[in-house]
Design goal:
nine-stranded antiparallel beta sheet
């Protein structure tokens, strides 16, 4: 994709690509971008997952474990406040496996939250060194997410099915609240305010995220 200067207000011309590569049981998403002016950049993937299959119902019974120790605090409009808070003892603590719905009512509307990854468990996938980020599992399947990015946004589908123009899933299955989850690797949403997430002239933005599906 070529993004011309001033598109959506961003400076400079940017050329970017995303390569989807299947290596055994792992799908790798490889992002690359260059620009001719310094510009903010924060690419991610917004695929919806439900390990029970399409139309199987809520993901609240799925279990999740995360290699993260802090989360980004937001206001009532989901705008980051600048605070990064310890997850310990909060509904955002997934150091151990918890059902997604176990403490979701203690959050403002569900999970739509940026987490800071520990990057403490390196793995080699498809020739790339990545770090374990999140594991989501059902009774039958397990989905592991890996990345070399510092953060991940967990979105529990809180607005699925909202609004008359809401599209349907494949097989014409209607969207319903919290019937899927997104695992969006990224920089912090307001990284530009912290001097991060900037692609400088002469640099190449190059990051990889992987999703590995297995039977339990």
């Amino acid at each position: 994709h070529h993004s011309p200067a001033t598109e959506e207000g961003y400076p400079g011309d940017m050329n970017l690509s995303v390569t989807y590569r299947l290596a055994d049981d792992t799908l790798l998403l490889e992002y690359q971008a260059t620009a001719n002016e310094d510009t903010p950049i924060n690419l991610t993937n917004h695929s919806y997952f439900n390990l029970g299959g399409i139309g199987s119902g809520s993901v609240r019974e799925h279990e999740m474990q995360m290699h993260a120790d802090r989360y980004t605090v937001t206001d009532s409009a989901l705008i980051p406040t600048g605070e990064r808070r310890d997850v310990t003892g909060t509904p955002y603590d997934f150091h151990d496996f918890h059902k997604i719905g176990e403490r979701i009512e203690k959050t403002p509307g569900g999970y739509d939250t940026n987490f800071w990854l520990l990057q403490d468990t390196p793995v080699t996938l498809g020739g790339k060194t990545l770090f374990a980020a999140v594991t989501v599992r059902s009774a039958a399947y397990q989905l592991d997410c890996y990345t070399d990015l510092p953060c991940i946004q967990i979105y529990s589908g809180n607005f699925l099915g909202v609004g008359e123009s809401c599209p349907v899933f494949k097989y014409r299955v209607a969207q319903e609240k919290q019937h899927a989850i997104c695992l969006e690797t990224q920089f912090e949403p307001d990284a530009v305010n912290h001097g991060e997430g900037i692609l400088h002239v002469g640099e190449t933005y190059a990051h990889t995220t992987a999703y590995r599906l297995s039977h339990r």
